[in-house]
Amino acid sequence: MTKYEWLTNQHRDTSSSIVGHPALLQYLSIADGEACARTKFELTERMLQPCGPPPPKDDE
Q1: Which residue of 9, 25, 35, 56 has the lowest C-beta tally within 10 Å?
Q2: Whole-angstrom Cα distance, residue 8 to residue 11?
Q3: Farthest CA pair distance, the chain
């Protein structure tokens, strides 16, 4: 497992945990000053590529 894959999994797990627990989602949305639905949408969208595009692979 590469560092990129590990970080991507960590970010996705954290985002899905926040979305899955309503109290955490509400806490984060209050801290950001946004609606819960907007925060949930942004976290769900961020799960696609949480750490940006993957680095180029070395074919060695």
Answers
A1: 56
A2: 5
A3: 48
